[in-house]
Amino acid sequence: MRILGIETSCDETGVAIYDDEKGLLAHQLYSQVKLHADYGGVVPELASRDHVKKTIPLIKAALNDAGLTKDDIDGIAYTAGPGLVGALLVGSTIGRSIAYAWDVPAIPVHHMEGHLLAPMLEDVPPAFPFVALLVSGGHTMMVEVKGIGEYQILGESVDDAAGEAFDKTAKLMGLDYPGGPLLSKLAENGTKGRFKFPRPMTDRPGLDFSFSGLKTFAANTIRANEDDLQTRADIAFAFQEAVVDTLAIKCRRALKQTGMKRLVMAGGVSANKYLRQELEVVMKKIGGEVYYPRTEFCTDNGAMIAYAGMQRLKNGETTDLAVQAKPRWPIDQLAPIK
Ligand code: KG4
Ligand code: ZN
Fold first, then answer.
1. Which residues of 208-227 are buried (b: 16+ CB within 10 A; e: fewer)?
2. DSSP per residue over 257-269, as a string?
3. How many A from CA of 112 to the centre of ligand 2?
4. What integer pLDDT is reported at residue 318 of this predicted model?
């Protein structure tokens, strides 16, 4: 069985074909980063207009790459939410319409479930149950995962998401959008110990996060110091260290609370090398394992949507002909797979 996956929830157009026996057959990605860079963030209307242009050519390219035709596709999975509604509507409408025309089922996929399951595309996938740290540009969540669709949110950000905090702090430092990866690069030349940022909400029990204070702390630190490249690198280092340390503290807490030894991290920020290193150390200490997707599947992509859609289609889930687009859609409302 083969599923075509379509992702258009934010600023990347992603298309992929997943085969339940052979694995991933093709994946195509178009990033709108350049389109939004001049504005310092994603402009929703521009995102939608660009998805309209790119989605169908990418579907054709993915079919060509896999050496398949439309007759080889058994279902279409599309991201139905959460995300920017106009952007979602493009992929949803195209996905639903193609499924109708090709006479195959359409499967609306939850974007964060896609991220959460992305490590399943790797050679050594995690077994259930596990604790998942989801860190993207729009969400930061700690989730207890017993199986597909069995998600209990243990904690989430009360303000900015981790990726959003990276991007906003990067912007303060004059870096282009999305600044997360650029800030991380800058931090590589930073001096450990010159600045010390707080570890928000770690001094009280619980698994919620708050990252907006770090951005303010960064702004104040920038203002109070000379503006040279080394200082910027030192501030980037201290900011990244604080985010990573905070995430690591909460991961340890979540693992202890649930009694689990398997940790999955996914979403754009899971591409961060320093975060990967630190979580490897945490898991080594407790004799557990950490799993994350290959770098290109940390950020938005069609492969994770095709994979998640495949699991739900195999579970016999079907939908009517209505196009689904849900800008807000809590992950714990998903149905468990039987
Ligand atoms: O998952 P994603 O592609 O989109 C959402 O679903 O939001 O995540 C994008 C976010 C951006 O905020 C980006 O700056 C951040 O992930 N990001 C990183 C790194 N790579 C991507 N943040 C820190 N370090 C990185 N290496
Ligand atoms: Zn995402």
1. bbebbbbbebbeebbeeeee
2. HHT--EEEEESGG
3. 7
4. 87
Report how far residue 130's alpha carbon sits from residue 147's, in angstroms, rounded to the nearest whole number: 9
pLDDT digits (tens, 9 = 90+) for 209-228: 999 999 999 999 999 999 99
Ligand 1, residues at Cβ distance < 6 Å: 10, 136-138, 163-164, 166-167, 178, 180-181, 184, 267-269, 271-272, 299-300
In the block, tokens 């991220």 appear at 115
What pLDDT, in 10s, does the model give residues 78-122?
Answer: 999 999 999 999 999 999 999 999 999 999 999 999 999 999 999
CA distance to 9, 14, 67, 221, 293, per residue, from 161 (Å): 16, 22, 39, 21, 19
**SS3 state at 17:** strand
3-state secondary structure of 75: strand
Summarised one tens digit per residue, pLDDT across range 118-140 is 999 999 999 999 999 999 999 99
Q: Report the amino acid identity of residue 311.
A: Q
The DSSP bridge pattern shows strands 2-7 and 75-81 to be parallel
What 8-state DSSP symbol labels residue 325?
-
Q: Among residues 163, 171, 177, which one has the least CA distance to residue 35?
A: 177
Distance 268 CA to ligand 2 centre (A): 6
DSSP string, 87-110: HHHHHHHHHHHHHHHHT--EEEEE
Atom of ligand 1 nearest to the CA of 161: 12
In sequence order, which residues have a C-beta less than 8 Å from that of residue 305 and are 6 or more positions away?
Answer: 5, 6, 7, 14, 16, 77, 78, 79, 109, 111, 114
Ligand 1 atom closest to the CA of 162, numbered from 1:
12
First-to-last alpha carbon distance for the chain, in angstroms, is 19
- Which residues are within 8 A (CB) of 174 and not within 5 positions of it... i.e. 6 or more apart? none
Report the candidate in 238, 208, 204, 235 with the shortest Cα–Cα distance to residue 222: 235
What is the residue whose two structure tokens read 């996929």? 109
